[in-house]
Amino acid sequence: MRVALFLSTWLLCLGAMATPNEPATLDRTSWPEPLTSPALFDVASRAEILTFAHALLATEALDENALKQRLNLKNINLDSIDTVRQRLWRQLLVNYNAAQQSCDQDASFCYLIEDMPTLREQAGKFAVADDSFYAAWAEPSREFHRRYLDEQLRLAALFPQTGSEIGLYGAHEFNGAEMNDRLFLLTFASGPSQLPGTTDWLTDYLRKQSMSATFFVLGNSLQARLDKTSQQAVRSLYKGQCVGVQGWEYRSHSHWQDWQNSILRSNALVKQQLPDSHVPLFRPPYGQRRADSGEFFQSQGLQVALWNIDSQDKAASLTAEQSAHRVLTLMLLWRHGVIAFHDTQDKVRTALPWLLKATAQSGLGWEGCEDRMPASDGGR
Where exactly are the structural domains of the chain? Predict the structure, then answer.
């Protein structure tokens, strides 16, 4: 009976899903100004917020059938979509309020927005004139936010039956939404890469920049590294960084019968081999985990570490530059949060340096990985 229930649930989820569209990206060279000050970051942020809000408002006129067609799904959860929409609106209002604090320095894209009704009103009539200084950016940005919004609504349409970063199952999970304005955390998953590889380059690069990030490793990949090198070599690899787990292998932990052992086994390996770098965090592959898994994670002292800014660097359709440009656009939109890269992808060698250079004078902060430690852990 248990097997039959699993199969029926799996088939139901499969039947609801269809092939997603290619991930959204925006060529940042269409934006006419470099982000060389906090005020100029805010100008670009206000522009992206209003463009996304305009796209979000337009979707509220779509009925269920129209949403299914647009999202390329056979079944959708309308309540989940509405919940995510409301959460997005609340975040947009908070973000725009933060971005308009510098309007006395540069009034571009500044409107009198004090509450939700005025935000919705301005979003509805937001447009960029053809002769505007920002005209070359306007249409590419509209297309980006339409496609990016579809990504989010598609995840919402499948939640909570299919877990993802779009929502939390409990207080044992976080996605960066609670972080302060202009503060970001770098995370890398699916490693370590084969030797020599991107993980080696990346950890060395971060140390040279006096930065730290959280690496979510796969148990089998870490064991392969240990077998080929040594414990000391692996400890040197992650020196100054934080290491959480992504399970023993890269597969969904939502319908896998051995999901608990996958997490326990990989977490024990990291804790034993990398005691100075280990953090009690689990990053679910594909963002998928069981809705009823909270008791397990809490009993193990683990937090589920999600994200709100996805580089989509694993997508074959995106180049390294496009992935970096996508991340920057989402940083402007959400203004804080957890950025997800993969250190098994060579794209990060180009994407990360470009991103740091593009934001170097923007007044942003990069949260140290140890600052993300659960309060009860007491530090490393």
Answer: 28-158, 173-377
Phi-psi label, residue 302: left if phi above 0, alpha if psi -120 to 50, beta otherwise: beta
The model's pLDDT over 291-321, given as tens digits with 9 standing for 90+, comes to: 999 999 999 999 999 999 999 999 999 999 9
The answer to whether residue 377 scores a pLDDT higher than 70 is: no
Q: How far apart are CA 150 and CA 73, in angstroms?
A: 11
Tokens of 158: 């499948």
- State both tokens at 108: 């571009």
Strand partners, 245: 217, 282
Please check whether residue 156 is in contact with residue 81, taking contact to mean a CB–CB distance below 8 angstroms. Answer: yes
- What is the C-alpha separation between 312 and 237, in angstroms, rounded? 25
Those residues whose C-beta lies under 8 Å from the C-beta of residue 112, and which sit 6 or more positions away, are 118
The tokens for 194 are: 């084969």
Judged against a pLDDT cut of 70, whether residue 4 lies above it is answered with no
Kindly report whether the peptide bond that precedes residue 196 is cis, defined as omega within 30 degrees of 0. yes
pLDDT of residue 293: 96
Q: What is the pLDDT of residue 168?
A: 97
pLDDT of residue 195: 86
Contact 144, 44 (CB under 8 A): no
Q: Is the pTM of this model over 0.85?
A: yes
What span, in angstroms and rounded, lies between the C-alpha atoms of 294 and 314? 28
Q: Which CATH number fits domain 173-377: 3.20.20.370, 3.40.190.80, 3.40.50.300, 3.30.360.10?
A: 3.20.20.370
pLDDT in tens, 104-128: 999 999 999 999 999 999 999 999 9
